[in-house]
Amino acid sequence: MIMAEKIKCNVYLDGRLIGAVNDGAAFVKEVRKNRRLGVVSGEINVALIKKLNEVHINADKGRARKAYIVVEAGASKYTSELKERLKAKEIDFNYLVRRGVIEYLDAEEEENARVAFTEKDLAPNTTHLEIDSASLLGLTMNLSVFPEYNSVGKHPITSNFIKQSQGLYATNFSKRYDPRAFLLYYPQVPIVNSLAYRTLKLQSHPTGQNFIVAMSTYYGYNMKDAVILNRAAVDRGLARSLFYRSYTDEERRYPGSQQDHFEIPPPTTDGYLGEHAYSKLSEDGIIEEEVNVKEGDVLIGKVSPPRFLEEQTSFGVGEEKSRDNSVTLRSGEEGVVDSVMLSETTGATKIVKVRIRSIKVPEVGDKFASRHGQKGVVALIVDPSDMPFTKDGVVPDLLLNPHSLPSRMTFGHLLEMLGGKAGALKAEQLDGTPFSTHGKDLVDQYGGILENYGFDRFGDETLYDGRTGKKFDSKIFNGIVYYNRLWHMVSLKLQVRSRGPVQILTHQPTEGKPRKGGLKFGEMERDALVGHGASLLLKERMLDQSDKAEIWICPNCGDVGYYDYIKNSAMCQTCGNNNLEMVEISYAFKLLLDEIKSMHILPKIKLKSE
Amino acid sequence: MKDEKSRSMVTPGEAVGTVAAQSIGEPSTQMILRTFHSAGIASVVTTKGLPRIIELVDARKRPKFPMMQIYMEKGIANKYEKVREIWRKLEDVKVSSVVSQFEEDFRTGSMVLNLDKERLALYEINPRFIVSKLSKMESITADVDGDAVKVKVKKKESIKAMRTTFVHVLNASIMGVPGINKALIQQNDDDTFYITTSGSNMEKVMEIDGVDKWKIYCNDPFEMARVYGIEAARNLLANELIGTIKEEGLTVSFRHIGLLADAMTYTGTIRSAGRHGIAGDKDSVFARAAYEETVKHFINASVFGEKDPLRGVAENILIGKQIGLGTGKVKLAVKKEDIKKLKSKER
Q1: How far apart (Å, rounded) are the C-alpha atoms in residues B221 and B241?
Q2: Alpha-carbon distance A269 to A326, whole Å?
Q3: For the domain with range A147-240+364-485, which CATH number is right: 1.10.230.10, 2.40.270.10, 1.10.3720.10, 3.40.50.300?
Q4: Which of A433, A537, B11, B328 is exposed most, by the fewest CB atoms within 10 A?
């Protein structure tokens, strides 16, 4: 038996075993000391995994790392002296990193660290300190306000919504050809904003507007997550935005010195869309600026050579056939041609970019969200005369159902409402940086401001019903919330179909919005109808509304025949019979029969009269 | 009474199979995939939740955790000593389970088995008993050596062969019913005792005196069908399914489960509800081809020149005919022309 020797600690570099040390903890300590001194690269992270008695050194690319202030012996290495020097701009951040005051930890080393949240939390065994408490959250969450008062479950939702918001995404938008872009008409700086918001200078790239919000129901029109908008506000440009969509096309070259050409396609081309579709093109085959376009209009006329090589005809070299390959406006969209750009690619071919602009006025079905994961879909746009109003005559822009708050625990939303109202009265921007405030103090502070201006300290106000003029029984909480308009809009999603295009192979309706498709009636839906015994409804769905086909069956040989319109009689190719029966079957079945035939199996159909 | 009965009947043309499938399928999606089993001495391990349902519906030849409940004959059921005697005969005890340590000596071709006294006491056996059981093996001799048992091969062989022999010795069954890993005596509310086992062997258990031969429960449908018949297996399937669903806190009407169990067993053997069972035995070529292994079914159909009368649901949806269910079940007995003829005659 081998005597119980002290087990050595294995060391792994980027997952590969490179050696062993006697004391892993001491080794890790040594590496970290040297890293802070700058002897070892600061890009190295080392972690001791106690459970496995292993040391993992990571130096590979692609690790997410986060900066922390180093704490030694319970004291932050970022001293007040350094603080002064940094303020005086004698030193910079990189100086602190070089000096080992700040270091970056990766996921594995973080497991060994004890990080204090604030300077108050420093304890003898603390190893690191957060640079700012707010850095606990990511970038997008830092653009929100008071997130620490919200349920954690709402944080990922909030950051998703912020990313989907429309605003001023770039100041050079007029020079850009983004595949699609949104631009808010009157973006505003939020009244309550955060340190990160100001640091990132997002005041010049706002993502939304300050809405006057009243926490009230409205005749059942804002149930669940529905919201009510004020028509007066919408008419004055509230949340109005521009929608840009760019179309690109290129004169491609093909083998055999063939090439695409931008031009108005001649009527002889394959797939000619009709004279009307090309009517808005100018001579060069490209649309003009500031032209109104609607669905089906051609934006870039393009003629391509045929897809397959021409068969030799008896007439010798005939006229070269061409194919229409024009770019048309997407189905269901309309707008104005904003700009046209002509350029050349690296392959020395012509390239055209056309940008279409359309105005998106908020309408029923558009999506809005505050910075607290509180989304809502516009359910009704109410005339200002019918909206509730305060004694001062203030009419809210948006009515939010109060039921959307308790179960979601987004107290930050309430604080923002109060803060927004206070900030608006005082004509001042207020701060809502994560973890920088104390809830009760905030309410007192905001309440104080509101009382100074003669309002209720909790933001409640008496509202009057616009329809009847009667006072509401209870006071209604209202305030100002920064709302984002998200880019999920009905006008880009709405689609209807009764009859429309079908697939070539199966003769069944196409799928998806760009192809004007139908909605899938799938296997489970089919089973539901079977379960109800609704046989005729089922037949209508699966046959009449789908791929009904009339085929001719030969009673003699059971094979599929065809109808000869010249001779005006049906015809069986197998046995020459002219006495065929017409049956209605699904085209998919006919296809199946054909495919079975291709497998060298001959299916025969026996007919029986009902 | 008669009215009550006729009102309870399913309407003709009701899609009972589809409704049953939906009714079982819907709660199944909510079931948690729980495969773990709880460790413990006082309980017998069984599969639970969705895995158990899959096991039953797929008609696996042997469940992952077979289990039995054995009840005693009337006079014995309340006497613990008698029940314990039966219990002693049940558990499959192997030599290795009473051995605490063993030493092999390949030079002399012998092995010394040191016995675990606690184990011996538990099973109420002594070394002599083990020797008597081992002596039945042909290739070895066994002797009592103090507290231990000494085993020696009769003919010296290669080390590998001897090692195999010794493994056989260790795996030799001393007592009990083969297949039963563990048995536990449990008490009913009315002070009668019954035994639950993990592992099952109904045939052998029935041979034991004192066991109520008409009241053995086993969770293996195939074993149930073999011993008690297909009706018992059908009831077992249905009860196990509904029990598993109930355990998850969900409810499904017994009629749906009963229909599934009936469909699985009405041929006299247990068929799975998959491509090798119910779905694979369908009459229609198209229905089978629409389910799984399309090409195989078409080729076989062409080889045997099969005819598809297009009577089922799947075929009719495929070709686009009205299905023969629900509103499609009924047809007019009198044709329009006949009515006209009748009317003209009346005139």
Answers
A1: 11
A2: 11
A3: 2.40.270.10
A4: B11
User: In this model, does residue A510 exceed pLDDT 60?
Assistant: yes
B314 in contact with chain A, both atoms CB, cutoff 8 A = no
Contact A531 B18 (CB under 8 A): yes
- To the query of whether residue A225 is one of the catalytic residues in this protein, the response is yes
Q: What chain B residue is nearest to A591 in terms of C-alpha separation?
A: B319
Task: Give B323→chain A minimum CA distance, Å.
Answer: 6
- Work out the angle at residue A55's Cα, subtended by the Cα atoms of residues A50 and A58, and round it to the nearest 5 degrees: 130
Cα(A220)–Cα(A190) distance, integer angstroms:
30
Q: Which of A225, A270, A431, A465 is catalytic?
A: A225
Residues facing A400 on adjacent strands: A215
Residue A108: name the closest of A181, A12, A39, A209 by CA.
A12
* DSSP one-letter code for A326: -
Residue of B nearest to A551 (CA): B319
Among A131, A107, A96, A126, which Cα is nearest to A46's?
A: A107
Residue B317 in contact with partner chain A when CB distance is under 8 A = yes
Asked if the Cβ–Cβ distance from A532 to B22 is below 8 Å, we say no
Rounded CA separation A382/B72 (Å): 79
ipTM over 0.95: no
Tell if the CB–CB gap between B320 and A532 is shorter than 8 Å. no
**CATH of region B93-175:** 3.30.1360.140
pLDDT per position as a tens digit, A344-403: 988 889 999 999 999 999 999 999 999 999 999 999 999 999 999 999 999 999 999 999
Contacts of B307 in chain A (CB under 8 A): 606
Which of A530, A539, A601 has its CB closest to that of B298?
A601
Q: Strand A335-344 and strand A292-293: pairing?
A: antiparallel
Contacts of residue B14, Cβ cutoff 8 Å, sequence gap at least 6: A533, B325, B326
Higher local confidence (pLDDT), A26 or B113: A26
Cβ atoms of A337 and A283 within 8 Å: the answer is no
Interchain contact, B313 vs A530, CB within 8 Å: yes
Distances (CA, A) of A505 to A257, A510, A519, A596: 33, 11, 18, 15
- In sequence order, what E strands does A383-475 have? 389-390, 398-400, 430-431, 460-461, 463-464
Confidence (pLDDT) at B36: 53
Q: Please give the CATH number for the structural domain made up of A9-131.
A: 3.90.1070.20
